[in-house]
Design brief:
Elements lengths: L7 H15 L21 E3 L1 E7 L6 E4 L5 E5 L3 E6 L7 E7 L4 E7 L4 E6 L4 E5 L7 E6 L8 E5 L2 E5 L5 E5 L7 E6 L9 E5 L2 E5 L5 E5 L7 E6 L5 E5 L2 E6 L3 E6 L7 E6 L5 E7 L2 E6 L6 E6 L7 E7 L4 E5 L2 E5 L5 E5 L7 E6 L9 E3 L2 E5 L3 E5 L7 E6 L5 E5 L2 E5 L7 E7 L7 E8 L5 E5 L2 E5 L5 E5 L7 E6 L17 E5 L2 E6 L10 E6 L7 E6 L6 E7 L2 E6 L3 E6 L7 E7 L6 E5 L2 E6 L4 E6 L7 E7 L7 E5 L2 E5 L5 E6 L16 E4 L7 E6 L8 E5 L4 E5 L3 E3 L2 E6 L12 E7 L5 E6 L2
Antiparallel strand pairs: 1-54, 2-57, 3-4, 4-5, 5-6, 7-8, 8-9, 9-10, 11-12, 12-13, 13-14, 15-16, 16-17, 17-18, 19-20, 20-21, 21-22, 23-24, 24-25, 25-26, 27-28, 28-29, 29-30, 31-32, 32-33, 33-34, 35-36, 36-37, 37-38, 39-40, 40-41, 41-42, 43-44, 44-45, 45-46, 47-48, 48-49, 49-50, 51-52, 52-53, ...
Length: 755
């Protein structure tokens, strides 16, 4: 497939940056568009519909109830609710998936509702009056990315966006929120966190300081004060704002008069103070450093002389306290739960492990398999409700199955990576059987019979025989770098692989310009213990990150944004047949029937490309965006499964897959249609040498005949038909996919009505 995510958190930030650049919004260091010019981010689709998700991953938020009984942990695009009344033994009460990454959580004790921000999906409202069975009751899209904060009071919800200001919604009818107020926070600096106290919201702008927004009139919020030192985290209690930053540590500000903020006290803190929470006379600071970080405990009894009392060592980014319990998350680490009954001396109570990152997904029958902080098995028999049924804590990323065995590897650029054999005869209890220790990196995997073919990047490919899964053995090693080897001849950089019949295909995007390795490599594996290089197709145009070989074609996912189609009928003479541009970098591709389904990162989401005519591929469907980053894809039945990075995985249904074998019998030599897609009229041309039997019939995606066409022009060498996009009854058809068939059944084609 694959991208290499050495540091998951870093990768997430880079992804956000890439998204922002493509939208004309600079998320980290540049000027933002004003709200009046911003675009509301929402979902858009064609021939693909969202079904459900299992959204769990790395934590970017955490909240608590007032008593400290419950902790609400943002886990990727989901929330895990823990009962920590006994902090030594936290119990998961319930969990739910959201439509996007959860960056902020607010618990309203008066209404028993959780308000969460959900990345591209805006915000969601969940009723947790029955905490064991949370129920989504509303939500709305917003302008920009709602990652700076969310608060609720009475009938109003306040959304702090990164670059598009404060937005106020009336949620008296939760299922139909109404945007009633807006305030531009800052035209230059970005807001990633904030705090609400009384009639004010305190927005931390990092290098831009902090602004105070008066929300006493929800319809007309306005900025009433500002503080100009660096602010990374803020918490307000009794008209005192406790702010933290790497530049000074912790400052206490008197904000009783927002127009005249007064510095009362300072406490120097080491490393990188990032967020802060106040409980009684103590401020707890999440320090995001692996060297001297953790939880800094500051006594703020005397606001003029706050004092660092102790530090609980660790790595902390997000924290929440309530009662005698504090919990924090950060990076790919578990949620750590501390007992703070002695506030000045927090002690470890327990930790709660969570999913982290899903870069790949594999579907076999009624089960889906992912590597996400352990091997996870999901029952997907109900597409609307995927349920994790099996788990093994062994670390890995990529799974492929054959019968009751699975091969499981890491997606890793480090050395010494195991190729693991797992017994999945009982999917609820995957059991480790044995492993082959690869001395190098591993980044893609395919299975042929009882052989695992592993892509090892600079080390080419390794083939492991797992006839005896307790003792898998290396039987072949090909195209690996060796000193004195010849680039593109004896070695390549194997980014991704696929097998079709007796041929192995390797994609190399040419990572090093000084080495001539880029291309599509075709190997004969009829004797899999002795792979033979047949051809390196160096004319490849794509920056290939994944490929799918089907029949006589190889479909390349171009990470620069597209799909390239290569004809490999003659293995010694591949030919580029077609190319289509996509909205974002294609990370993964799977072909079924006449369509290639692509995980198209951020802007593209899920893309479908019609490849029935290899020389004219075109986008036939899409769903954009996913919950985070579309990285991996698999297709089973009429459903598309997308590995969504920090947001777990999502399931989509498509009408583009019909299950008809006829779809693979499109005779491009005898028919063409134009324009395709079309708006009003489409012309269908059939060569006269191939007798269509006079009539053509038009069918909708469900197979129902809706119109019959007679030839309009009988020209030398061809017959032309025209369709006006109407049924036999004269009704205009809706946008979508339609098919035409000859009366003899020998001619078949697909056309798309765009609008």
């Amino acid at each position: 497939m694959k991208k290499f995510y050495f540091l998951i958190y870093f990768g997430l930030l880079i992804g956000a940056y890439a998204f922002s650049q493509s939208q004309g919004v600079h998320l980290f260091n540049d000027k933002q568009p004003l709200s009046l010019n911003s675009t509301r981010i929402d979902f858009d689709s064609l021939n693909i519909e969202y079904k459900s998700s299992w959204g769990f991953g790395q934590s970017f938020s955490i909240a608590s109830d007032g008593t400290g009984t419950y902790k609400f942990i943002g886990s990727g695009a989901g929330v895990i609710i823990l009962d920590v009344s006994n902090p030594e033994n936290p119990v998961k009460v319930s969990e739910f998936s959201t439509r996007g990454l959860v960056d902020q959580i607010f618990y309203d004790e008066n209404s028993n509702r959780l308000y969460v921000t959900a990345y591209f999906a805006g915000f969601e409202i969940w009723d947790i009056s029955n905490i064991e069975s949370p129920m989504k009751i509303g939500g709305s899209a917003v302008d920009g990315l709602p990652r700076g904060g969310i608060y609720a009071e009475g009938d109003f919800v306040y959304i702090v966006t990164v670059a598009d200001g404060l937005q106020v919604f009336n949620v008296s009818t939760p299922s139909m929120p109404v945007n009633v107020g807006y305030c531009l926070i800052d035209p230059v600096n970005l807001c990633w966190t904030s705090h609400k106290s009384g009639n004010y919201i305190y927005a931390a702008l990092y290098e831009g300081g902090m602004v105070i927004i008066d929300i006493s009139n929800p319809a007309n919020p306005y900025i009433t004060g500002a503080y100009y030192d660096v602010v990374y985290g803020v918490s307000v209690i009794n008209e005192m704002a406790i702010v933290v930053s790497y530049s000074y540590g912790l400052n206490i500000l008197d904000v009783s008069d927002p127009t005249n903020i007064v510095l009362k006290g300072t406490c120097l803190l080491p490393e990188f103070p990032y967020r802060v929470a106040v409980n009684g006379d103590y401020a707890y600071v999440a320090n995001a450093s692996s060297n001297g970080g953790g939880i800094n405990v500051v006594n703020i009894t005397d606001i003029t002389q706050p004092a660092l009392i102790t530090t609980y060592q660790g790595y902390a980014e997000y924290l929440a306290s309530g009662g005698n319990v504090l919990a924090f998350t950060g990076g790919s680490y578990p949620c750590t739960i501390l007992n703070i009954s002695t506030p000045a001396a927090p002690t470890f109570a327990s930790s709660y492990s969570m999913p982290v990152f899903t870069s790949d997904i594999h579907v076999a029958g009624n089960f889906a398999y992912t590597g996400n902080n352990g091997l996870r098995v999901f029952d997907i028999s109900d597409q609307n409700n995927p349920i994790q049924v099996g788990y093994n804590p062994i670390d890995g990323s990529i799974v492929r199955t054959t019968g009751n065995k699975a091969v499981y590897i890491r997606e890793s650029m480090t050395s010494n990576n195991p190729v693991m054999m797992i017994d999945i005869a009982d999917p609820t209890n995957p059991i480790f059987l044995g492993q082959y220790n690869s001395p190098v990196m591993t980044n893609d995997l395919e299975i042929k019979d009882h052989y695992a073919v592993v892509s090892c990047w600079w080390d080419g490919i390794r083939i492991i025989d797992f006839t005896n899964p307790a003792n898998p053995v290396l039987v072949a090693h090909k195209m690996g770098w060796t000193s004195g080897g010849t680039a593109g001849v004896t070695y390549c950089y194997s980014q991704a692989i696929d097998i079709e019949g007796n041929y192995l295909y390797i994609i190399d995007y040419g990572p090093f310009g000084e080495e001539d390795t880029k291309g599509l490599y075709i190997l004969d594996i009829s004797d899999i213990t002795n792979p033979v290089l047949i051809k390196r197709f160096a004319e490849l145009q794509s920056y290939g990150y994944d490929l799918d070989a089907v029949g006589d074609y190889v479909y390349i996912a171009d990470n620069f944004g597209g799909v390239e189609v290569i004809d490999v009928t003659d293995k010694n003479n591949p030919i580029i047949r077609g190319y289509v541009t996509l909205p974002d970098g294609a990370n993964s591709i799977r072909v079924k029937e006449d369509n290639a389904f692509v995980a198209d990162y951020i802007n593209g989401g899920v893309q479908a490309v019609d490849v029935s005519d290899p020389s004219n591929p075109f986008i036939s469907g899409y769903y954009r965006r996913t919950g985070c980053f579309a990285l991996g894809v698999d297709v089973s039945g009429k459903n598309i499964y997308v590995a969504d990075g920090a947001a777990g995985f999502q399931i989509y249904h498509t009408s583009l897959i019909t299950g008809s074998k006829a779809l693979t019998q499109y005779k491009t030599d005898y028919t063409r249609s134009y324009p395709n897609p079309f708006n009003d009229n489409v012309t269908i041309v059939i060569k006269k040498s191939f007798n269509p039997g006079l009539n053509l019939t038009i069918h909708d995606a469900s197979g129902h005949k809706i119109a019959t066409l007679l030839p309009e022009e009988l020209l030398e060498g061809e017959t032309k038909y025209r369709w006006n996009g109407r049924t036999s009854m004269g009704n205009q058809v809706k946008p979508g996919i339609y098919f035409y068939y000859s009366a003899t059944g020998d001619i078949y084609g697909k056309i798309i009505k765009a609008k």
